[in-house]
């Protein structure tokens, strides 16, 4: 209870006014309703085209109409944020399409010249892959992550590094860029029959091809995690170059056996243009298995989670 003593001419009259908390809350509610009714009944003066500024209570809080408007705006920002995220993801997907288009253009333009079956030709193809991958990843890394491989993209999505929605947009953009590049190359070459398609070498079975692609993609994705994704990386900005070198080394090692695709988008575009789908599933299953395994291994064994303190790298006496 609230006790108040009134004084008159320095003498205490002994009068106590007792107000219960319930009476205080009822008086506050009645005052709020009265001020709300006055606010709603107010009309703008004649000749005034603008809106009256809402009145505020003594505590500084806006009255009910303005509070409701703020509440709706507070909850409505979710839809605005979703729209912005969709637009941002679409823009990044367009960037992916451009990067993958340029990547497929340089890679298959070199293979159209022929000579990939010889040692010198295989070395030239490996160097072309290394340089193109390094340049394309470096060019797109600060824009949208430099994704040009669906296997790596889905591996990062499985590890929670990017959202599933964005990874789906990336994969669609990669496949579209590969298809457009191969269509243009087929038009310039004069025939789609000259488009080189990934195929297993003689004596290599489909399970062996899947294993080859899984191993090669595992090494590629593991390098991406270690040199680009991991925040503890000690190579600075050399991650894209190291990824390109791994791609070139894998082409030299696995090219004579399975073609060293390591990228489902690389096999999808030529197969779509030429109409040759033989063993196409090998170049999807193998890279997906290798990419997912590499992501699980690195995330589970080597990636430092937030809140964990890294052990000292120098020798320490225990």
UniProtKB/TrEMBL annotation:
Disordered: annotated segments:
28-61
Q: What is its main location?
A: membrane
Asked whether the keyword Transport is assigned, the reply is: yes
Membrane topology qualifier = Multi-pass membrane protein
Query: Is Iron among the key words of this record?
Result: no
The protein's matches in SUPFAM superfamilies, at most eight in alphabetical order, are given as:
Aquaporin-like (SSF81338)
Q: Compositional bias (Basic residues) at which positions? A: 45-61
List locations, semicolon-separated: Membrane
Mind telling me what this protein is named?
A: Predicted protein
- Organism the protein comes from: Hordeum vulgare subsp. vulgare
